[in-house]
Design goal:
By secondary structure, the protein is an alpha+beta fold. The chain contains 3 helices and 7 strands. It has helices at residues 9-33, 40-61, 114-125, and strands at residues 3-5, 66-69, 72-74, 80-82, 86-92, 95-100, 105-108. Helix 1 (9-33) runs antiparallel to helix 2 (40-61). The chain is elongated, with a radius of gyration of 18 Å.
């Protein structure tokens, strides 16, 4: 039996809305600090940058899935992480970061319930990570 972890479209959109808000504020602060009289253009630039990025990468990012089966996590691009080689599980926003004993890091991104995914991996590994 396998468990599949897929990205959630609503979480993807929410995360990009937060990134856009931060990019807009950061660009406006940068323009203000540089003495630019058109600070408002930073908001437009931040929104456009994150909006284009989100639109361009949506089909790829939302197509990634991780499968938990046969004592390992199998991810996009041929990623393979044996459960007994996982050193830590961290949470970053809506993602679960998998850190292996060798120092490799993988992200299971845009999860509707990152804590449930983390718990499922811990349970499958049979130990606290």
């Amino acid at each position: 039996m396998s468990t599949v972890f897929r990205p959630d479209r609503a979480t993807y959109i929410r995360d990009h809305a937060w990134m856009a808000a931060l990019a807009m504020a950061g660009a406006m602060v940068a323009l203000w600090a540089l003495g630019n009289p058109h600070v408002w253009t930073g908001a437009v630039a931040g929104l456009a940058a994150v909006g284009v990025r989100g639109w361009y990468l949506a089909s790829e990012e939302l197509g990634h899935e991780w499968r938990l089966e046969d004592g390992a996590l199998h991810g996009p691009g041929g990623r393979h992480v044996p459960l007994d080689r996982i050193a830590r599980l961290n949470t970053l926003g809506s993602a679960v970061q998998i850190v292996t004993e060798g120092g490799d890091k993988h992200l299971v991104k845009y999860l509707a319930d990152r804590d449930a995914v983390r718990a499922a991996i811990r349970q499958a590994a049979g130990r606290d990570l």
